[in-house]
What we know:
The complex is a heterodimer. Chain A is of the alpha+beta class.
Amino acid sequence: MLNQDIRQRFDEMLPWYVNGTLEQESRQWFEGQLSAHPELRSELSFTEALRDRVQAAVPTLAPDIGLDTLMRRINSERQSSQAPRARIATPTLRERIANFLEGFRFSPAFATAAAVIAVQAGVIGALVVGQSTDESEYSTFRSSGDGQIVSGPLLEVAFSADARERDIRGVLVRVGGMLAGGPGQFGNYVVYVPADRIAEAARILESDPAVEAVSIIPASEPGR
Amino acid sequence: MEFDNAKVFELLKAVGQGSEAAIRELYTTYSRRIYAFALHRIGDPGLAEEIVVDTMHEVWKRPDRFRGESRFSTWLLGVARYKILTAQRSRGTDHDELDEELPSTDAGAFEVLAQKQRREGVQHCMGKLSDEHRECLHLVFFEGMSLKEVAEVQDAPENTIKTRLFHARQKIKNCLRLLMQSEGISDIGELDNA
């Protein structure tokens, strides 16, 4: 008689046995159960048939399907990004500094401002020199300030690849959110919003053109 | 076909330097897998092709986003998944989902179903699954991914993946049973002689 625990474990392993990713030890246990309980073979046959149908459901297609579309898009972007650069003559750094200084021409106001800056630099310099240089007094700074741990819930947000930093900051301000992490491997960010406003924030984010996808990460359980 | 990560990094580095040959090589190597994944999830060949293009365009724009923490194909399908979710949201796509009945304990019936290979029936029933369930079946049985990899692509805990797979199989079984009943095979035992 097949007990419930064995049946549950068998069901959990079944897909991985059929797709060949089950580890050796688990595979041996699984095959032992198949021998001991022949009635389980029908489940195996069904899942193998399902696997075959999933594999057969995809039509054969050329590997370059859509490639022309991609290359056109890439070339179009290249042309549009190069065109403005050709039209606008960007001044060099030397020219920009020269232009900046040109505006002052050593006027009395400029001389006064320069004097104030020199005094301030002197005061700041004295304060820095006056500090101890003993390495033991170096402070440790953390990005999270006082080390407060955010337990969630949190929002996982995929911003559009075209979104600019200004767009991202704008939408975060609108939802009252704060970046808590990221970008992850898929380019996603983790955003903290107080729990009572998280559903509303998710709704606002979802409708924002700078955002591709949003999901709520539930609060972690204590001790985890 | 799957490149190892060393080869992938070599190609991505070239992509970062603007090499069209490199993006073409990545495209022709992975396009079919992205297409299959998208087609199983959304069922629209035209849209599936768009997803392939959008996904590889993302690789072109940001080749540095792949950090080698998984197989490249696993990462790539994760990117494709976000593209699909975006497309579905903008089109307001929704799906009829099958009701799940209590798991059947009639093992003999499943054996018969497997033997009969009810091609259209299985296809029909898979089409009625939720997007998440259908996607999960694809990753396991088409991609041959491990539990850890499926969890990574679907961005869900491993136990959730196990539950999804169990429920997906149960839903297909019950759907097939209903199909057979509608064909006049009221007693599952009659299938033996069908």
